[in-house]
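Look over this record as teaching material.
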Amino acid sequence: MKRPAIAVTGLGMITPVGTTTATTWDGVLAGRSPARTVPELDGCAVDFACTVSGIDLDGAVGGRTAFRMGRYVKFAVLAAREAVADAGLDPAHWDGARVAVVVGTSSGGSAGLTEQAVALERRGPEATSPSGILLTIPNMPAAEIAIRMKATGPSLAPCTACSSGVTALSVARDLLTLGRCDIAIAGATESIVFPVAMTGLARSGAAAARDGDPARLCRPFAADRAGLVMGEGAAVMVLERAQEARGRGAVPRALITGVGETTDAHHPTSPHPSGDVARAAVDAALRDADWRAEDVDHVNAHGTSTPQGDATEAALIGRAYPHRPPVTAAKGVLGHCMGAAGAIETGLTILTLQHGLIPPVANLDTPAPGFDIDCVTKTPREARVRRAVSHSFGFGGQNAVIALEAAP
């Protein structure tokens, strides 16, 4: 079946460096991490993270229903609101039955579940919230967006760990291709900066140990990379069939031309060292897009700053794109936003297509020897980028690659 062209007509973001798409873009271009000590993590082995700040979430969400939303849900609602407005759409004037919502997450409301468990253990059932279950289940971001947007089409919540954002966009694309909706609100959200999760991260060995300024600890593709730093946030996009979007006068930000997804089937946390199955996801995305490898002008890498993860991905990039397109990795600035990372990095790739600017990899002072990739460092690089890919690799061996093209 020939796929219709799928356009991204709206984009909304909330991240540790900005509460909108524009401020996030400016923060990522600046290349400075906001990682800091988090008071709520006092006593934890990892007591620092990149967190969203400078916004009253309840006030921004508005209304009398914020009490029933976890932090991750509020992020998604705000990003979706910005994306729909950016697309020039008004939910009061659309056919809600033809609008789908697909919002992924990795940990969902695990923070809310932990809070309720502590309240139950320390003070008994009456201390728990009547909305406790709503603070925990992972479909609530999609559900709350659907409620607020009066979107009565399919509402889905994919979970493929750190690849959840790209999976959500892939599912939304399929719904549009199959004619099951005319508009899809799609992306991912995450808020995992709380003691239980951060302790687990430290115990797994994936986190950077405190060694000086937290803002300098996440160093993707660096010789002295030593682990990831946690982040949080959300990115949501509005997807439409390109022909119909143009018919209503919308100006697409970009086109989604290909997606590839595979599973390493190797280990719960470590990538397969050969990178062969991740490479298969790249190849699948390129086939889907009908591109050759040399058509790719830019790679937005997963780039977690972990020793094995970066080594595997660098080798993959060198093999998959032998013409050495410029590479960036946003986690040096934003930290690892887990389930939201793929959606946020897709959004940043779209902005690179639009502005012809590739953000620098933060904290990359000394590239690792043997990594034959062209990482952008220090300052943004101007480049003519017409076609780009974004990599997302997650726990459980999840591999997702999305191919994006500048809109005509």
The chain has a mean pLDDT of 95. The CA atoms of residues 59 and 66 lie 9 Å apart. The longest strand covers residues 254-263. The two ends are 23 Å apart (CA to CA).
